[in-house]
Each structure stands twice: as C-alpha cells, then as structure tokens.
Amino acid sequence: MNISHIEHIGIAVKDLQTTIPYYEKVLGLKCYNIEEVVDQKVKTAFFKVGETKLELLEPTSEESAVAKFIEKKGEGVHHIAFRVDSIVQALDECESKGVQLIDKTPRKGAEGLTIAFLHPKSTAGVLTEFCEE
Ligand code: CMX
C-alpha cells in the first residue's frame, strides 16, 4: 500500500462546543468545518495542522462507537487515519497479512472521503483508519 501521510487524528470528546475553544483560543488553530457523519453517529469538527488534520468527534447517539469509547476510557485520542492511494488495495493487503478488518468494503466518511477501519485488537491497540480522496 502507499501511505502518503497522516490524514487526521480522531479525538473523542463529550461536547464539541466546550472543547473547540481550547484548540482555537489556546492552540491558535481554526475550526474550518463542522459536519455530522450520520453513518458513524458522530458530529465532527476539523482543524488543519500542516498536512494533517485534527478531527474532534462528539457522539450523536448512545450506540455510537465514540460514545462507547468515552464511557469506557474517557475523552482522548480515538484513532489515527492514514491517507492511501487505494483503500481496496490497502484492505486486501492487510487481510492477506492477517489483520482483522472492521470494514471489508470502504464507506463514506467526513469531508467527502472514502474510509475503512482496521480492528484495534490486531493493530497493537490503535484503531486505524484508511482514507482515500
Ligand atoms: N482504540 C483502541 N481500542 C478500542 C477503541 C479505540 N478507539 N475502541 C474500542 N477499543 C477496544 C475496547 O477497549 C475493547 O477492548 P477490551 O476487549 O480489551 O476491553 C475492544 O476494543 C472492544 O470494544 P467495545 O467497547 O466492546 O466495542 P465494540 O467491539 O463494539 O467496537 C470497534 C469496537 C473498534 C469495533 C468500534 O468502535 C468500531 O467499529 N470503530 C470504527 C468506527 C468508528 O470508530 N467510528 C467513529 C469515528 C468515525 C469518523 O471518524 O468519522
């Protein structure tokens, strides 16, 4: 597979509106997009840091993966997303090397990207996402 860079780091938060001021007023970053991803049951807020983005994730439902994560572990880093040329190729390669896939086929993510997740149990504890433009 061809990973070009870290596309974003996903950070689970209870409430976007109370968290955004830390990133804007303390770190001096600008929130340039707030978007709900209905599929994933989250509301997202994006900041650019060079080529990489920070994606704040607020759950919109108790059944959301992010709600479960916050309940278990509290707020904090939730996943790392790598930009690849071809998600299908990346997933095939991971599967052939014994990595457990959460998504066998790519699905729609925020910012018009196509996404797929690998299970943290087979990636040394880091929930890993691939993104393709
Ligand atoms: N990072 C690391 N480990 C995680 C994790 C995370 N983000 N989320 C869950 N886990 C671990 C749990 O701690 C648990 O470990 P133990 O068995 O040792 O306790 C194990 O995975 C199972 O967790 P669970 O709470 O029982 O949750 P599920 O198995 O129901 O779901 C997962 C876990 C990863 C399959 C699910 O969260 C998922 O499908 N995630 C991908 C989709 C997603 O996260 N969407 C939100 C973001 C979308 C976006 O960026 O737009």
What's the layout of helices and strands?
Layout: E1 3-12, H1 16-26, E2 31-37, E3 42-49, E4 52-59, H2 65-73, E5 76-84, H3 87-96, E6 107-108, E7 114-118, E8 128-132
Parallel strand pairs: 1-4, 5-8
Antiparallel strand pairs: 1-5, 2-3, 3-4, 6-7, 7-8
This protein binds carboxymethyldethia coenzyme *A.
Structure, explained:
With 133 residues, this protein is α+β, with helices and mostly antiparallel strands. It is built from 3 helices and 8 strands; from the N terminus they run βαβββαβαβββ. It binds carboxymethyldethia coenzyme *A (CMX).
Instruction: Provide the CATH architecture.
Output: Roll
**Small molecules bound in the structure, each named once:** carboxymethyldethia coenzyme *A
**Would you tell me the structural class of the helices and strands?**
alpha+beta
Instruction: Please give the oligomerization state of what you see.
Output: single chain
Instruction: Indicate how many domains the architecture comprises.
Output: 1
The largest β sheet comes out as: 8 strands, mixed
What is the averaged pLDDT score?
A: 96
Q: Tally the beta strands.
A: 8
**CATH structural fold name:** 2,3-Dihydroxybiphenyl 1,2-Dioxygenase, domain 1
> What is the spatial order of strands in the main beta sheet?
2-3-4-1-5-8-7-6
| Overall 3D shape | globular
Please report the first level of CATH classification, the CATH class: Alpha Beta
Radius of gyration: 15 Å
The residue fraction in helices comes out at 10-25%
SSE run: EHEEEHEHEEE
Q: Which spans of ≥5 residues are poorly predicted at pLDDT below 50?
A: none
CATH H-level homologous superfamily name: 2,3-Dihydroxybiphenyl 1,2-Dioxygenase, domain 1
